[in-house]
């Protein structure tokens, strides 16, 4: 029996692996030590044997309430991800598994590896409407890549989509994969209508360093990128610095910043009611977008979510607020669950890559509803 996490996006510290019914593990904190919750490791053992794994520092994680009713994610083939019986008690997250193969991968959510990210860029760049642009380097000297879908017509609207500012929120890149794939489907009338009136600027992975390092929330310098948008710097947050520069060149007419929420078992949007520039026109657009998304995906709902910011009280260091105020456009943070959507629970997989992909497709319907024809 052995545990390993020495791979792309891996994260676990092995404390005690002597007894199969009492394997003690701990999650390694992100750089800087402030955040942790992401885990991702492989267990090799004996087929048919029962294993009990305990993450002993679960109560010190960034969002301990995220463990309530949470089930760990696992896969034998790294394609199909399912849930394992999991219990949070006495400050420990306990996971049970009976091995069906020699090895199982267990993670906080279905990983989206840096290699798969490279595959995504390569797979889509062969489409004639796609160009992949190098925006700059991260602190670990990885590429920060922009997928542009459209043409040279600058009179079109600019739709910006960013994912994985928080690298452990891998569902965000699964969503983007589904959204791009559908947008490039020449038979899809929603996609054709959208591309007639907008160019898309998509950053599928805002934080590749954090992803490879197995971080939950920060980049290589331990910085939370979603608090850097008012004053990004090449020293602390080059990822945001480069994206903001590019946004200033293209302008932004619609922004969709994609995330996962550790706690709430729902899909929800956080709007920009609290930014100084919020007005009746933006409010009407928000209603239109949300009504369209409600019809396009029963996984989306508007009952549960974050409290709305009071007028003028939004935190402008947050991406969606900064963009709304700078460009006066509709701007959202989209949150998907690590757990499940309790309105439409699915017991085997719970929230999954597949459902994230479908939500990405549905998001195009809502975008089409708010973008004016040329
Ligand atoms: Zn997030």
TrEMBL record:
> Catalytic center at which residues?
335 (proton donor/acceptor)
The GO terms describing molecular function are: carboxypeptidase activity
Write down a Pfam family by its short name: Pepdidase_M14_N
Q: InterPro entries of this UniProt entry?
A: Cytosolic_carboxypeptidase, Pepdidase_M14_N, Peptidase_M14
Record bears the keyword Metal-binding:
no
Write out the entry's keywords from A to Z. Carboxypeptidase, Hydrolase, Protease
Q: Does the keyword Hydrolase apply?
A: yes
Peptidase M14 domain boundaries: 110-374
- SMART domains recorded: Zn_pept
Q: Which cofactor does it need?
A: Zn(2+)
| Superkingdom of this protein's organism | Bacteria
Assigned protein family = Belongs to the peptidase M14 family.
Protein name in UniProt = M14-type cytosolic carboxypeptidase
The uppermost taxa in this organism's lineage are: Bacteria, Pseudomonadati, Pseudomonadota, Gammaproteobacteria, Alteromonadales
